[in-house]
Amino acid sequence: MSVEPHRGEGRSLPDLVVHALRETSELLRTELRMVRTELSDKVAQIEAGAGSLAAGAICLLVALFVLSQALVVAVGELIGDAWAALLVGLVIAAIGVALLLKGRKDLQPDRLMPERTSRQLGKDTELVKEQGR
What value does the mean pLDDT take over residues 32-50? Predict the structure, then answer.
């Protein structure tokens, strides 16, 4: 926003209205630029969360195959090789669950709120109210 030096007490009402409209217009343009920037950041956050969800789902699918194979081998032979496959399957499942939980947390609505813009709009509203007095 531009700040003009005070030109004296003799400014007319139309001049003041034009000045206020110009300042409001500049404020809105600035706020819109800030909203665009912050929303771009949030889109990147959504993409990262979606990637974590997809990776977690893939890990869980692999875990299902490994655990199924481990169960078949364990029941069929009751030897050490089966328990090794079971252990690998459990580790992959744990990784998948961790990725899914992280992705779900990243995509919670309260984490996607454009906080900076919201704070700035609140400050601007207060400023406009104070100047209107």
Answer: 86
